[in-house]
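4.2 Preliminary Data

To establish feasibility before requesting continued support, the project team ran the inverse folding procedure on a target of 284 residues. The structure was first converted into the token representation described in Section 3, and no sequence information of any kind was made available to the design step. The complete token record follows.
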């Protein structure tokens, strides 16, 4: 089927009390792994492209690969820009066929973040594209975007309420203690803060930096209103583990298909586990 607006997927998740997995892609094998896992679990899914993915693979390749994957499957697939850095980039992604964009103005003063988000919304709404924004700063590193521990700040519930009322954005990414990249210890999520935010806003909440967060914490976050969960690092770890396994067994192997195929399968296994954890299995 054609790519679908992420807003539709998240509205159904809101009604059903589950979360949709949003998985970052960088190449064909990752996109195939995402779709294959979602098909086996009969789950809706979101394919995400970050700044690093766009620079590595190119916007045209990512869009074309995801469109082909979506058109040849029975599951609903959304294509989302992760951490868009400018108005111009979000428009470029919309023109290429993305069904959702994130404009990350979290480093800006609140009113500037609102103004930037509204500018993106004016374009996206005209063509039926969903918009995600962010309040608070999520620590760690994701591709070219780094937020140090001292820069990171948790989302203020009242600011989140004001932001949503001033924009009408479709989904809101909040900072409650997660971080991008690999964790050095076990992250501790601020569930009280999440509960307060959910009580003040009536839109789906997005959890970034979810790789490495304990399963029970993810489950609790979904119970409290998270409807989109972003996963990237876990896929990278699985991909590299699959490649290493093949080359350790057969160091002279030179066939990319025999190296990347097992890596794809490793990622697919991880994605299936995440889909079941998020409660979206069988929701396609």
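Position-by-position output of the design step:
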């Amino acid at each position: 089927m054609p790519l679908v607006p992420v807003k539709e997927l998240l509205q159904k998740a809101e009604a059903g009390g589950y979360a949709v997995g949003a998985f970052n892609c960088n190449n064909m094998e990752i996109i195939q792994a995402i779709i294959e896992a979602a098909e086996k679990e009969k789950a809706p899914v979101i394919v995400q492209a970050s700044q690093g993915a766009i620079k590595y693979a190119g916007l045209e390749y990512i869009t074309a690969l995801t469109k082909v994957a979506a058109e040849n499957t029975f599951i609903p697939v959304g294509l989302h820009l992760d951490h868009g850095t400018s108005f111009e980039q979000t428009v470029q992604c919309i023109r290429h066929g993305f069904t959702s964009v994130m404009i990350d103005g979290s480093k800006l003063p609140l009113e500037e973040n609102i103004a930037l988000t509204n500018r993106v919304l004016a374009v996206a709404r005209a063509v039926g594209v969903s918009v995600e924004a962010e309040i608070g700063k999520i620590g760690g590193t994701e591709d070219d975007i780094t937020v140090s521990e001292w820069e990171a700040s948790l989302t203020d519930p009242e600011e989140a309420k004001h932001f949503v009322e001033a924009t009408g954005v479709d989904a809101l990414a909040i900072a409650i203690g997660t971080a991008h990249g690999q964790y050095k210890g076990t992250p501790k999520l601020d569930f009280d803060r999440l509960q307060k935010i959910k009580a003040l806003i009536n839109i789906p909440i997005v959890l970034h930096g979810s790789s490495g967060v304990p399963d029970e914490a993810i489950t609790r976050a979904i119970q409290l209103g998270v409807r989109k969960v972003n996963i990237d690092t876990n896929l990278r770890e699985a991909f590299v583990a699959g490649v290493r396994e093949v080359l350790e067994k057969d160091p002279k192997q030179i066939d990319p298909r025999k190296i990347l195929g097992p890596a794809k399968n490793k990622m697919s296994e991880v994605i299936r586990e995440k889909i079941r954890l998020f409660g979206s299995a069988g929701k396609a």
